[in-house]
């Protein structure tokens, strides 16, 4: 027997106990132990087998250390079939989580019992694959086609009571998994219950799979794993027998295993877990965080306050007038009402958060005892400096002073205080209580325990937290400015905003860049362009002004009803604004440009090459420490399609040599904008990838 599975006899029942902490992952030792345990039980006269997990969970899923490696024997599909084929009654008692391979093993058992808090699901589509150990064949047989499709194509886990309703498990009982499992197995033996193998159940009912396939593919914005998983469930309904269905499942599983999307999603899975693990923070104790201040109660400040309240922090919201403070409270209450409606908090919790945990103030003195203060005021350096000068005067020693600036120099902000070591950038993304990304911007003099506190705050707020250095726009907005500039230049040269939006949604973005601009507000980009022009632009830079004309006319996007698109009350989305074409044509004429046609493929390639090239500069300069920091920033802050893994993972998959060659070709037209990143040139010369840099940093 493997040490990962303990074998014992309790009367006529052989008990197989998983002992592979922390989550009883189904690694090779566990699989060997289960196989030998079943064989031993059959050999020594047992009449039933109980499988359960020691510690906090049943089998939580596959062993992530085996991802991307050939599966050692016994493989999970063969193990599941062997358990199912046992002449003994096999019972699984489930607690904690039974995900992926864990649920597949449970489905290979003949009976299933769970505690009420147990969760189960088949989340493989979130890794770019499908359940490959019979999950797409067995789940539809016990739960029905519709319920199985919902779980498999979404990857959504469900709790035991819902699983009972769907027929996935047979009983929900309070108690320890070992005890309830033994009692259930003995009850089955006493009743003379027969084996009940899922593979012997009738094929599930047919539906219109072609129509559903198109709907699933559309919902996934090009992600292929949910739609491919649907075809595998279809095989459960149509195959001549169960074995033929399993064979088709394995074929489709291998197609996905060999896909680029699987590479991208596995990269995203591991990077999401690695991004906040910085070597320099190991052993560093964060400062105490119990109460924070937020300055500015607009959309951003109210969102930050909401996130902090929901994480258990006390919040003092500072505004300049009583009326502005009341408006800020209204925004926060509105955000919390959303959490109340979704069942995230109770009415009692809502009342405590709004009446006790939240304090409104109009005097900086109210922030004297705050452990951390975050300003979310207007994006203007002089305004920021005024705020930080006042904070420096009133905040207690050791309090952290944070700016939510999107672009501005945190070193310059810190320099106006007597404690630059306590100053940091905390760049949230709006709406801050919903968006997952937090950029922790580390200035030259920021103390290491202040950095650690920024990451601790991100964890408290359930954010994906990324370390960024100081530059214009940090990681995300700096890269955004470059690929948006690339898009603007393609418009000057002949593309339309609507063709670019369509090409990028086809690539997998939820919205194209011009629809996003309308959503965010065109005045944001306008202010950034004016700031850069005032600072002095290189005469070689191509500067477009057609968007400025929209802003000058008071058209700022969705909030004014008109931008690149026209928005009508009661209608979802917008229609192209006919005024935009004339503005673009006038801008081209002013610059003496004769427009040409672009294909969607050329638009996508240029857009992505601009993104990758600037991202490589950001990593090469140390603004981002690792390529994965860029990838997670774009995934969680800018809607980059998860199944591509991030721009630098996408670049690795496409081939860095081809990307560099294209950039050099584009540079023949514009050698100022298309300057190859030195890091990209170095990696190509050395035959290395961005992922090599990620591995080297671990």
From TrEMBL:
<dbReference type="InterPro" id="IPR036291">
    <property type="entry name" value="NAD(P)-bd_dom_sf"/>
</dbReference>
<keyword id="KW-0511">Multifunctional enzyme</keyword>
<feature type="domain" description="3-hydroxyacyl-CoA dehydrogenase C-terminal">
    <location>
        <begin position="473"/>
        <end position="567"/>
    </location>
</feature>
<keyword id="KW-0276">Fatty acid metabolism</keyword>
<keyword id="KW-0576">Peroxisome</keyword>
<protein>
    <submittedName>
        <fullName>3-hydroxyacyl-CoA dehydrogenase</fullName>
    </submittedName>
</protein>
<dbReference type="InterPro" id="IPR006108">
    <property type="entry name" value="3HC_DH_C"/>
</dbReference>
<comment type="similarity">
    <text>In the N-terminal section; belongs to the enoyl-CoA hydratase/isomerase family.</text>
</comment>
<comment type="similarity">
    <text>Belongs to the enoyl-CoA hydratase/isomerase family.</text>
</comment>
<dbReference type="Pfam" id="PF00725">
    <property type="entry name" value="3HCDH"/>
</dbReference>
<dbReference type="InterPro" id="IPR008927">
    <property type="entry name" value="6-PGluconate_DH-like_C_sf"/>
</dbReference>
<keyword id="KW-0456">Lyase</keyword>
<keyword id="KW-0560">Oxidoreductase</keyword>
<dbReference type="InterPro" id="IPR006176">
    <property type="entry name" value="3-OHacyl-CoA_DH_NAD-bd"/>
</dbReference>
<keyword id="KW-0442">Lipid degradation</keyword>
<keyword id="KW-0443">Lipid metabolism</keyword>
<dbReference type="InterPro" id="IPR001753">
    <property type="entry name" value="Enoyl-CoA_hydra/iso"/>
</dbReference>
<comment type="pathway">
    <text>Lipid metabolism; fatty acid beta-oxidation.</text>
</comment>
<dbReference type="Pfam" id="PF00378">
    <property type="entry name" value="ECH_1"/>
</dbReference>
<dbReference type="InterPro" id="IPR029045">
    <property type="entry name" value="ClpP/crotonase-like_dom_sf"/>
</dbReference>
<keyword id="KW-0413">Isomerase</keyword>
<dbReference type="Pfam" id="PF02737">
    <property type="entry name" value="3HCDH_N"/>
</dbReference>
<feature type="domain" description="3-hydroxyacyl-CoA dehydrogenase NAD binding">
    <location>
        <begin position="291"/>
        <end position="468"/>
    </location>
</feature>
<dbReference type="InterPro" id="IPR018376">
    <property type="entry name" value="Enoyl-CoA_hyd/isom_CS"/>
</dbReference>
<keyword id="KW-0520">NAD</keyword>
<feature type="domain" description="3-hydroxyacyl-CoA dehydrogenase C-terminal">
    <location>
        <begin position="603"/>
        <end position="688"/>
    </location>
</feature>
């Amino acid at each position: 027997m493997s040490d990962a599975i303990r074998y014992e006899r309790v009367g006529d029942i052989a008990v197989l106990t998983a002992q592979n902490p922390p989550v009883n992952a189904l690694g090779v030792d566990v699989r060997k132990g289960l196989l030998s345990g079943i064989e031993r039980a059959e050999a020594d006269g047992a009449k039933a087998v109980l499988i359960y997990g020691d510690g906090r969970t049943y089998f939580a899923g596959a062993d992530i250390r085996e991802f991307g490696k050939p599966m050692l024997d016994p493989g999970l599909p063969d193990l599941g079939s062997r358990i199912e084929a046992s002449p003994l009654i096999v019972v699984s008692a489930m607690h904690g989580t039974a995900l992926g391979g864990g649920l597949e093993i449970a489905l290979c058992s003949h009976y299933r019992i769970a505690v009420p808090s147990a969760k189960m699901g088949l989340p493989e589509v979130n890794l770019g694959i499908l359940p490959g150990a019979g999950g797409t064949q067995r789940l539809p047989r016990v739960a029905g086609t519709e319920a199985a499709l919902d779980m498999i194509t979404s990857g959504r886990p469900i709790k035991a009571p819902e699983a009972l309703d769907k027929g996935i498990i047979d009983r929900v009982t309070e108690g320890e998994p070992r005890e309830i499992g033994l009692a259930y197995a003995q009850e089955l033996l006493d009743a003379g219950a027969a084996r009940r193998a899922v593979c012997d159940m009738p094929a599930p009912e047919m539906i219109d799979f072609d129509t559903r396939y198109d709907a699933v593919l559309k919902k996934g914005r090009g992600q292929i794993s949910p739609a491919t998983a649907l075809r595998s469930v279809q095989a459960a309904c149509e195959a001549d027998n169960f074995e033929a269905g399993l064979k088709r499942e394995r074929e489709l599983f291998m197609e996905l295993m060999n896909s680029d999307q699987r590479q991208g999603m596995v990269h995203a899975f591991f990077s999401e877990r690695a991004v906040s693990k910085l070597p320099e923070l190991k052993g560093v104790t964060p400062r105490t965080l119990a109460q924070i201040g937020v300055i500015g109660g607009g959309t951003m400040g109210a969102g930050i306050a909401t996130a902090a309240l929901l994480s258990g922090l006390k919040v003092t919201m500072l505004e300049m007038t009583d009326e502005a403070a009341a408006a800020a409270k209204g925004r926060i209450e509105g955000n919390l009402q959303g959490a109340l409606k979704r069942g995230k908090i109770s009415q009692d919790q809502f009342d405590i958060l709004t009446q006790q945990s939240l304090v409104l103030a109009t005097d900086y003195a109210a922030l004297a005892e705050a452990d951390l203060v975050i300003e979310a005021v207007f994006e203007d350096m002089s305004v920021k400096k005024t705020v930080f000068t006042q904070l420096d005067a009133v905040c207690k020693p050791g309090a952290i002073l944070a700016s939510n600036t999107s672009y501005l120099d945190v070193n310059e902000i810190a320099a106006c205080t007597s404690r630059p070591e306590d100053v940091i950038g905390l760049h949230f993304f709006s709406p801050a209580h919903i968006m997952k990304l937090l950029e922790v911007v580390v200035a030259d003099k920021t103390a290491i325990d202040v950095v650690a506190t920024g990451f601790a705050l991100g964890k408290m707020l359930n954010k994906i937290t990324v370390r960024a250095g100081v530059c214009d726009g940090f990681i995300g907005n700096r890269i955004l400015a470059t690929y948006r500039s690339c898009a603007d230049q393609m418009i000057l040269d002949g593309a339309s905003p609507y063709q670019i939006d369509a090409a990028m949604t086809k690539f997998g973005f939820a919205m194209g860049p011009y629809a996003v601009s309308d959503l965010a507000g065109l005045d944001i980009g306008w202010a950034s362009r004016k700031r850069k022009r005032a600072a002095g632009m290189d005469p070689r830079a191509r500067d477009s002004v057609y968007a400025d004309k929209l802003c000058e006319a008071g058209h700022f996007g969705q909030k004014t009803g008109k931008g690149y698109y026209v928005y009508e009350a009661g209608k979802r989305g917008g229609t192209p604004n006919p005024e935009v074409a004339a503005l673009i044509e006038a801008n081209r004429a002013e610059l003496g440009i004769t427009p040409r046609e672009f294909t969607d493929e050329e638009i996508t390639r240029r857009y992505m090459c601009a993104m990758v090239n600037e991202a490589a500069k950001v990593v090469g300069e140390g603004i981002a420490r690792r390529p994965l920091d860029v990838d997670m920033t774009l995934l969680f802050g800018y809607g980059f399609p998860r199944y591509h893994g991030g721009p630098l993972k996408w670049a690795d998959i496409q081939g860095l040599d081809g990307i560099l060659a294209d950039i050099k070709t584009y540079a023949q037209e514009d050698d100022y904008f298309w300057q190859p990143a030195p890091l990209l040139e170095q990696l190509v010369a050395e035959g290395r990838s961005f992922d090599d840099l990620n591995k080297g940093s671990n």
